UniProtKB/TrEMBL annotation:
Coiled coil: none
Protein's name according to its UniProt entry: Tripartite-type tricarboxylate transporter receptor subunit TctC
Cleaved signal peptide residues: 1-29
Gene3D superfamilies assigned: Bordetella uptake gene, domain 1 (3.40.190.150), Periplasmic binding protein-like II (3.40.190.10)
Similarity field: Belongs to the UPF0065 (bug) family.
Keywords: Receptor, Signal
A Pfam family recorded for this sequence: TctC
UniProt cross-references to CDD domains, sorted A to Z: PBP2_Bug_TTT (cd07012)
Domain of life: Bacteria
Annotated InterPro entries: BUG (IPR005064), Bug_dom1 (IPR042100)
The organism of origin for this protein: Nesterenkonia xinjiangensis
Lineage, top ranks: Bacteria, Bacillati, Actinomycetota, Actinomycetes, Micrococcales
Amino acid sequence: MKDTHTRTTLITGILAVPALALTACGGQADGDDAESFPDETITFITAFAAGGANDSLARMLAEHTETVDEDYDFVIENIDGGSGSVGQAEGAQADPDGHTLLLVTPSIITNPMFNDVPYTHDSFEPVILINSEPHVLLVNADAPYDDFASFVEHAEENPGQVSIGVSGAETTTAFTSRDLASAAGIETTTVPHDGTADALLQAQGGHIDGAVAGGLTEAQSAIDEGSLKPILVFDDERLEDMPDVPTASEQDLDTMHSSWRGVAVPEGTDPEIIQALHDVFQEALETPGYEEASENLNLSIDYAGPEDFQSLIDATYETYSDYED
């Protein structure tokens, strides 16, 4: 098995059209390029730091794709900064030849909505959806409430005093926190942090009352060690790994939020190249090795092809456009 290369870059400082219409887009590869694809190493950008769920998914997918098709060779490039916007800009501005990919999350939608960035979600073409997780509300294990009902009671008795950490000011987890307060009829304080890991760490230390994670995976280690406990899943189905944690729908809360992850290429990429990438990635997802690796990380495999992934992106845009000024 080949070793997937790694290049880490730290910087501090979908699609919009149907496949047939892509032939009119400028800058795309011609038929000869599609037939010879891939003819060089593929750069796979993840717009977040190494070590998290996004990075792990990119590495897993690259590794198992190289296993099923030896023509594919990847270098993982972590371009961290601006809540993902730095790496996303790099991905959007790359040559649309299929040799630069981006691991995308809902932040390709929210970042352009609330920040001055040189791209929108329409700057990308979807290739494949690989994972989706509902958001989860967690509280410190020593908190004076054991479940969601007692959490709400505590918040009602202490209006504005219950603090919920989120990954950033205008992020999907921030919207989840605000929606929760509105839906539950309680007054809480949403506290932005520098990423979910920082929010969870502050909740573990008791500096805030709880945190919203963009999925169980992000909080699994804290749950396993007993420092945080999940009390609500923002979905209509309970999690298989946490069957005792109630859902938002069970609490009569109309607030469903999830974080999805997939692969996209720059707008204007040849549809034949998109299809080739989709097919080899789908094959990789179905290998026993990928399934085992996902299970070890408590990551679900949630597949959708380009068309259905497009629909999910469009639906996500509609959801979060309600928060746009």
